[in-house]
Amino acid sequence: MTTRFEDVAVGDEIPGLSKVVTREDVKRYADASGDQNPLHQDDGFARSVGFPGIIAHGMFTMAHLTSCVTAWLGDPGSLKRMRVQFRSVVLVGDTMVAGGRVKALDPSTRRAVLDVWVAVERGGGTEFPIKRSEAEVQLA
Q1: Per the structure, how many domains does the chain have?
Q2: 124: left (phi over 0), alpha (psi -120 to 50) or beta
């Protein structure tokens, strides 16, 4: 089902998408992307530069956000533009929750602008590896 312009209002939240990050996910992403940086492969190296262990790729986190937006749209081709700010890292074992909210609607083009983010719960609080970001989408 594709999201229709008439069914969306400013302030509506899109359904969140959760994913627990595993070491295997990070390894598969490294192999698929060709990014074999030791930050994503070697716990000892990651600890030597201040992290508690390997971290997920920023683009892995962004891909999860993209999956959230395109699942809501119903058509991956309806995502026209995405701009993100990477604010913190995602660790193995984190549960990423991607989400968004309709910020603006343009009836002349049937497009919407969404505020989008990825959150993780850590240390008793919420961190946002991706925040202050937006997506422009074409609605049916």
Answers
A1: 1
A2: left
Tens of pLDDT, residue by residue over 23-72, are 999 999 999 999 999 999 999 999 999 999 999 999 999 999 999 999 99
Q: What is the pLDDT of residues 70-129, one digit of tens each?
A: 999 999 999 999 999 999 999 999 999 999 999 999 999 999 999 999 999 998 999 999
Look up tokens 């008439």; give the residue.
Answer: 6
HSE-up of residue 48 (Cα within 13 Å, Cβ side): 8
Q: How many CB atoms neighbour CB 29 within 10 A?
A: 18
DSSP 70-133: HHHHS-GGGEEEEEEEE-S--BTT-EEEEEEEEEEEETTTTEEEEEEEEEEEETTEEEEEEEEE
The domain that contains 119 carries what CATH number? 3.10.129.10
Bridge partners (DSSP) of residue 43 are: none
> Residue 106: which domain range?
5-138
Q: How far is 63 from 40, CA to CA, in rounded Å?
A: 16
